[in-house]
Fold:
Amino acid sequence: MTEADVRTEEIEPGRLLVRLDGEVDLENALTVEERLREVITNRAESVTLDLGGLNYLDSAGLRVLFALADRLELLQIALDVVVPVGSPARKAAELSGLGAVVTLRAT
Amino acid sequence: MVSPADGIGPGLPADHLRRIQALTDIGLARLEVEELLDELLGRVRELLEVDTVAVLLLDPSANYLVATATHGLEEEIRQGVRIPIGRGFAGRIAAERRAVTIPEVDHSNVLNPILREKGVRSLLGVPLMVGNDVMGVLHVGTLRSRSFTDDDAMLLQLAADRVALATRARMSQTERTAARALQRSLLPGQLPTVPGLELAARYVPGGGGEVGGDWYDVFGLPSGRLCVVVGDVVGRGLQASVAMGRIRNAVRAYALLTEDPAELLRWLDRQVQHFEHNIMATVLCAVAEPGHVEVTVSSAGHPPPVLALPGVPSELVEVPADPPIGLTLPRRRRNTTIRLPAGANVVLYTDGLVERRGEPLDSGLARLTAAVMPGPAETVCAAVMSRLIGNEPSADDVAVLVLAREAEHEVAPLTLVEPAVPRALRGVRQAVRDYLRRAGATKEELADIVLAIGEASANVVEHAYGPGGGLLEVHLEMHGRTVTATVRDTGNWREARGTNRGRGTTLMHGLVDAVRVDHDGRGTRVVMDKTLGGVGQ
Structure:
């Protein structure tokens, strides 16, 4: 079973840090998507999604991130995504053009 | 009594005995261990009419014999010859606790190249025993062929018993404890066993047998990486050694906090500047990834490692030297990544190995690079010591550490057949990762290929079959340094559906060097090639 872990922390009121660890592929992408929708409520003003702890992210996972970006834009919640240099998620994020819809940060 | 070929009789056994007895009785009580051994060996050489005499003592780890005193084989001590128990001529004597004689020396029965280079033809050796404990080995050799007799062996054993007793008696309990404690802090008792990597090391005190502040260290990290350190605390004698012991342990402690060599050295620098006074050290810190394909190195004023690759002249690795530890806090320390292909060697050392009075440093470095070549770690280490130290002891102490990556073994092709369901994907990735590690892929190459295969496999799972399902087949093989991955199904390909789809194909093209997709009546085949980084990159 492909496992991913979603952990959240409210850094300050309205500012949410979401850490996504483990692996995301076709098998668990929908589960991850549901978890993200649960933890990000419409009270949030901005969300930082940290993918530094992710060992595998394929296009099924990227699909979730693109959908999330769309959804948060509609809700007027700012989203930036942390993909450290050399991390497995960085290449996938860059090649897929995720940077065109959200801010990609190294730290 | 005497071999017939020999022709000269050293006298009657009773006479020998008296003379040996006399050796330990008369006025030797005031002599230090070294002088006493020297005197005894001289007498043995005379009595047995041999050309070489050597005493090797068991080191504190009890795994090695270390050349300690000799007449005629001075190189053994200068090069810090260490013979593993059970191997070679001396190692066998210590393991079997009995006399061994070799009438004709050749490569198969003698491990130590110095004996062969000296032209020693025949050897006789006996264990140094006190009670039931083996302390070491005493051996004699001749430059012409000689058959040692039982009487020769008996005589040598008598001498050995006296050498053993005298040595032990002179090494007072405190001295031994101190010497052992010091040596234990100097060097790892035994180098760790690391699958896929061979290690060999030497430490030789400087001229006059004085220990200094050089050290080497190799240890595993909790992440599975390997940390390798060589350093040199400036100074001489006990004080430098003791400071070195503290710094070595500080490195070990920080290695549990960070596995980034530059960051580790930054911490070490802060530690030394806070706690130590007037201590300066050069340190080379390296962290090897699992599989040892990539090694990250940071240098605090330390001479650069030498890299030897199969089929290429050895060279100094360009590792920029940041300031030594203990001076100033530099704004930054840098990391350099070295690629270590299968069959490659890296030699780390301290400056005592390459520095000679009245000679520019470059000549020493040139001699070192010429002496280093791919090969087994012990052989390379012995060759380096022989070529650079030879018979001329270094003024400074010397530490050398050789890491040799095992030569490439053929990586057998991998074929996986799984039901085409999402649940199968994780297992496929796991097997592909294992295969690529064996093939020597770097972390980044591995991640790229795993994702490309993951995408192609997910396509099969999502699009190849109807509700009845089918099979996903993944095949990997190496052609030289190129990985060819084939992902196939036996269904009817359909174009991707839904929004945000088709991204997988873009990824695949961005991750590998070439992607080909063939459809035919029997299904679809995606073939991807990626060449693993060239030598030395």
